[in-house]
Amino acid sequence: MAATLRQVAERAGVSVRTVSNVVNDFPQVAAETRARVQRALDELGYQPNAVARTLRNGRSGLIALVLPELDVPYFAELTRAVIEQAAVAGYTVVVDQTDGDPVRERELVMRGNRAAMFDGLIFNPLALGGADLRNRQSSTPVVLLGERVVQGGLDHIMIDNVGAAELATRHLIELGRQRVAAIGDQFDETRQTGQLRTQGYQAALHAAGREVVPELVRPTEFFHRADGAAAMAELLALPEPPDAVFCYNDLLALGALRTILSRGLRVPEDIALVGFDDIEDGRYSTPSLTTISPDKTQIAKNAVQLLLNRLDGDRSAPAELPADYTLQIRESTGSGQTSGQARGSRRVAR
Amino acid sequence: MAATLRQVAERAGVSVRTVSNVVNDFPQVAAETRARVQRALDELGYQPNAVARTLRNGRSGLIALVLPELDVPYFAELTRAVIEQAAVAGYTVVVDQTDGDPVRERELVMRGNRAAMFDGLIFNPLALGGADLRNRQSSTPVVLLGERVVQGGLDHIMIDNVGAAELATRHLIELGRQRVAAIGDQFDETRQTGQLRTQGYQAALHAAGREVVPELVRPTEFFHRADGAAAMAELLALPEPPDAVFCYNDLLALGALRTILSRGLRVPEDIALVGFDDIEDGRYSTPSLTTISPDKTQIAKNAVQLLLNRLDGDRSAPAELPADYTLQIRESTGSGQTSGQARGSRRVAR
DNA sequence: CTGCTGGCTTGCAACGTTGCAAGTGATGCT
DNA sequence: AGCATCACTTGCAACGTTGCAAGCCAGCAG
After folding, report:
1. What is the DSSP string of B317-333?
2. Nucleic strand C under 7 Å from the C-beta of A14
3. Nearest 5°: CA angle at B139, between B134 and B142?
4. A5 CB-to-strand D distance under 7 Å
5. What are the backbone dihedrals phi and psi of residue A293, each rounded to the nearest 5 degrees, phi first?
6. Which of B14, B11, B5 minimizes the C-alpha distance to B43?
7. Contact A114 B48 (CB under 8 A)
8. What nucleotides of chain C have any atom within 7 angstroms of a protein Cβ?
9. How many CA atoms does the CB half-sphere of A67 hold within 13 Å?
10. Which of A131, A178, A174 is nearest to A154 (CA)?
11. pLDDT tens, residue by residue, A1-22
12. Which residues contact A154 (CB under 8 A, 6 or more apart)?
């Protein structure tokens, strides 16, 4: 159906090679020939075959972004940033969702089966750990996003979870809250996010000379609204409920918020809330959500840049780039001003 | 870097073709040969080159889902459904975001430049209208999602916007509300969603013997939270503010909700709210959101099925499939029960 | 008139895979 | 022994493109 170079060449009465030269705007084509070929191209509605080009050139111009869940706003917002950054460099991003399924993650990232279509991968693992990733079959470059799961071996962008969690918790302590709880702890070995944030939470309590009360640290299976709502209900059922909660992401916080409000309690008067991720939902909830705001644009920019360097043959040692973050103070811990901002960042070394 | 059939063949001392036969599990290979080849495959870590296969077979196993915005929850949730449906048929979905940019939409859908990598496209247009779409260059099959923008020519899954909007508005009228407003009207010729929903809104008012009050119908540029918040502020500034609002999607409703609550007004006591899309955010807001719930799974299933039929050579006339929808009654218009459900659906013929 | 230069065009091969048809050698039947 | 059959294996060509090097021809200098 689609016209090929050969068909165009026949129609224009020239060789295939010359048509290719016209299509690629190579200079050494006589003006008259170029015009004739161009006419044939237009008449046949020629479109270059991307697959053949890729096979020939070894480059598809496609990079894949592999994420656990697209309907988690943080990932959706990150995706937007990655697409924008890649577009600058002339690359198209395609997104694939793994649901954290180890089988899917492995298929996409490890074997490079489908991956061979893509020049590179930006991968936010959920199930795959460092041990898995170290013996990848595929030679397609990968940049990892997320927690520090891997011991070297691959480029990696991560945020300082411990430091950020400590900052969030300290904020609640400085508000004078006495019983600061945490929602989102995780035991699962492959999911380090929860553990790291718990470390930061505990560090802040210790720094303030407080004890860590075990029943105030609630584990959740996932980081969704439903998990936050359920964990908050447990906290409220305690003999001594908390007066502040640090939720390990904004969805958990929104779920917790829903539970608190449905009990007739007030935020922040009765319970102050801090989230993590700074998704748009949290800016429009009532009350709006105080949260740790990772610099998503920076994360995307660094990830794309790191990947493009590899594609250009950069063979230097794998990089580990930390991303900046700030604490966005909004209504769920504050008065009513929505623009407050505390610095808790770290410079990115490059 | 990656091993090829030829390298494996040399190592195993057989022809390239035989290796291919082993890789593809063709029966007519002697057991002893198969074992030897398999060993060579393993030793070299052979992975088939997807690009070469695609060129040869004319099938990539990839379908593209082209959407305006991934960080709009409705699209994110729809994407999940499409990915699941396509996986059943052994297809991998890659997602591309256009931001409603006509240039990007055209590049992806019309010319098939990049598109040639994909066996088919599921496309939710924002900027491109019927006139554009009719003279596509590419022969890659497309299924359209969304409003009825096109007059024939392409397969299309849409929901009955007029009927759904009428149902939503009627619900508010039946609650006894006197001044029912609407947020999300649009004038732009390429964005029909707003206009169709306004038609349904007006139809419901007329059916109830009410007048349409022009200043109660607020246009918005986009369908984001910020637009809803701003439009609601305008409505509240009217001499006679509304006591009910039908928002043309849930994000608008969540923005409006934020404005209402920040003014100290109550939902639903002072103002009842209905949204559209049934995104997860609306189920966890306080109050939770009454909304029109399109059957996203059904939309995804039909879209994928329609596309797969085309890939299998189905040459029948383009189909227009309506999708089911229901009214989910929640707290923003109701008492407190969250499970109410009114039927307003249409059977899908297939 | 020869030979060289330069502008333009072309054929060949290859990227890695698979369909097709033909090839090989061994076995079995007459 | 001769021939057909069978089980297995192989070479060729092609998918559509582009790098490479060679080819062609006109023009011009010597």
Report:
1. PPPEEEE-EEEE--TTT
2. yes
3. 65
4. yes
5. -110, 100
6. B11
7. no
8. 7-12, 14-20
9. 26
10. A131
11. 578 999 999 999 999 999 999 9
12. A133, A142, A143, A144, A318
pLDDT of residue B192 exceeding 90, the answer is no
pLDDT digits (tens, 9 = 90+) for A113-156: 555 688 999 999 887 777 777 777 677 899 999 876 566 678 99
Q: How far is A97 from chain B (nearest CA, A)?
A: 8
Q: Do B146 and B125 contact (CB within 8 A), yes or no?
A: yes
CB B112 to CB A2 under 8 A? yes
Subunit contact B94:A95, Cβ cutoff 8 A: yes
Q: How far is the CA of A282 from the C1' of C1 (A)?
A: 89
Tokens of A309: 């360097």
Residue B217: closest CA among B201, B203, B196, B229: B201
Length of chain B measured in residues = 350
**Quick check: B28 CB within 7 A of strand D?**
yes
Pairing state of beta strands B155-159 and B180-185? unpaired
Rounded-to-10 torsion of CA B237, B239, B240, B242? -10
B contact test, residue of A53, A94, A104, A122 with most B CBs within 10 A: A94
Beta carbons of A254 and B281 less than 8 Å apart = yes
All residues at 6 or more sequence positions from A123 whose CB lies less than 8 Å from its CB, including other chains: A65, A66, A108, A109, A142, A143, A144, A145
